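From the methods appendix. Each design record in this collection lists the tokenized structure first, followed by the designed amino acid sequence. Records were kept in a plain field format so they could be parsed without special tools. The example shown here is representative of the layout used throughout.

RECORD:
FOLD TOKENS (443 positions):
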């Protein structure tokens, strides 16, 4: 009782401490812009603060990421106003993103679910914030390397969190049986298995690309460790869509690495991935599920949702039914708040032709800029990195055709950070700035 009384008394000190910490962080964000992108990424992992409940626990928990986005967003806006050079100075991708967000806001006006609509606007806006910060931080090739290496470390930590979640379910045998019997059993407070697998699809191609590109020994070690961990986590998710998308992006990376001098790293990479799938007790289950995907209930239900999403779009082709409102028009769902499980069909149904075309233009612009940077790069490691980013972009787009990934708060940040690295390199390639094998800058 005494301890409980002391704890209740200390709770009143939490808010001042948080406020002071917020002020210090905001000051750091203003003075050290490079610090912001790393803080933004790693603020995803802690998940919920677990301190407060809003609306009697009916509202979503406050995430550590929510506070980080607000502080970083205000700091970025403040810096932007101080250095504003007009709309003409903005890159095409950023202009498209701003118009896209404006259209989403307009779409929210006639949405049947305003709360969900505003949450989705926040999620996409967080992606723009990550893109802007990455473009400001990646000034040379070595900056790109640091961001990408941090993303791989982030992927390793996420995999460890998933493994811990699996371990906490009981002994190893019980855990594997539980994952097999119950869909999305591995769950953090900000995402479940299917959603978490999207980060593996995003990061595995980049890890493979750095390994094939003959980077520094410690970076090759990081890349292969991250690929092993994330491949294992992907198999544990039992996500068929993620496995197919990762396979597509992996084939692209391997196609780039198929040269006489790269044949050994390619074979090592393939061997590691195959072993991770074969040795995992759930690997065969996942492969079998992919081979008979057309018989799965999840695929059949998606067919119905896709058909009804298309019919919803055809009835509202110009404006859609409103961002986040598709669940009111889908009959084959167990809850009102649902997704089309296809990014383009979802945008067509909810935001009309304009919203879908704007997002498609953003993806195409990003792909073109990354490939343009790839064609201009002279350093072989830089070219491998850019090809890995392009392969990752293809993979996450493929995955978004069956899962609502781009709509996710956390995934939006990581995906647009990765894209930001690629498009930033396009205009900032400096020969010799990216570290090569042996620890020295190339000539």
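DESIGN:
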């Amino acid at each position: 009782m005494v301890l409980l009384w002391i704890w209740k008394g200390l709770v009143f000190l939490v808010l001042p401490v948080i406020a002071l910490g917020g002020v210090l962080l905001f000051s750091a964000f203003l003075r050290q812009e490079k610090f912001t992108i790393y803080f933004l990424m790693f603020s995803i992992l802690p998940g919920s603060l677990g301190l407060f409940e809003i609306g009697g626990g009916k509202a979503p928990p406050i995430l550590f990421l929510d506070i980080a986005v607000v502080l970083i967003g205000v700091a970025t806006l403040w810096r932007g106003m101080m250095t504003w050079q007009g709309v003409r100075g903005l890159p095409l991708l950023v202009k498209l993103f701003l118009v896209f967000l404006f259209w989403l806001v307009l779409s929210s006006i006639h949405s049947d679910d305003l709360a969900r609509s505003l949450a989705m606007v926040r999620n996409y806006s967080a992606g723009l914030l990550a893109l802007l910060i990455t473009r400001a931080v990646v000034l040379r090739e070595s900056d790109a390397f640091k961001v990408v290496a941090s993303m791989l470390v982030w992927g390793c930590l996420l995999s460890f969190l998933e493994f811990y979640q699996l371990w906490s379910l009981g002994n190893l045998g019980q855990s594997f049986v539980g994952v097999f019997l119950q869909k999305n059993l591995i769950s953090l407070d900000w995402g479940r298995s299917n959603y978490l697998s999207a980060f593996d699809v995003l990061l595995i191609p980049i890890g493979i690309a750095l390994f094939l590109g003959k980077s520094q020994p410690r970076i090759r070690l990081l890349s292969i460790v991250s690929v092993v961990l994330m491949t294992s986590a992907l198999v544990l998710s039992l996500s068929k869509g993620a496995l197919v998308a990762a396979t597509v992006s992996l084939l692209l990376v391997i196609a780039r690495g198929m040269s006489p001098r790269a044949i050994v790293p390619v074979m090592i990479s393939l061997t590691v991935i195959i072993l991770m799938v074969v040795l995992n007790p759930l690997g065969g289950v996942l492969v079998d599920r992919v081979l008979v995907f057309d018989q799965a209930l999840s695929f059949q239900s998606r067919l119905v949702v896709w058909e009804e999403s298309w019919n919803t779009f055809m009835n509202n082709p110009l404006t859609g039914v409103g961002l986040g409102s598709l669940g009111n028009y889908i009959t084959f769902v167990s809850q009102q708040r649902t997704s089309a499980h296809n990014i383009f069909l979802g945008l067509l149904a909810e935001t009309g032709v304009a919203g879908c075309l704007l997002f498609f233009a953003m993806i195409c612009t990003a792909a073109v800029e990354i490939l343009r940077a790839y064609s201009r790069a002279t350093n072989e490691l830089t070219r491998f990195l850019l090809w890995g980013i392009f392969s990752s972009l293809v993979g996450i787009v493929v995955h978004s055709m069956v899962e609502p990934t781009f709509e996710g708060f956390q995934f939006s940040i990581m995906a647009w950070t990765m894209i930001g690295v690629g498009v930033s390199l396009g205009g900032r390639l400096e020969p010799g700035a990216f570290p090569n094998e042996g620890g020295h800058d190339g000539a």
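APPENDIX NOTE: The chain has a mean pLDDT of 78.
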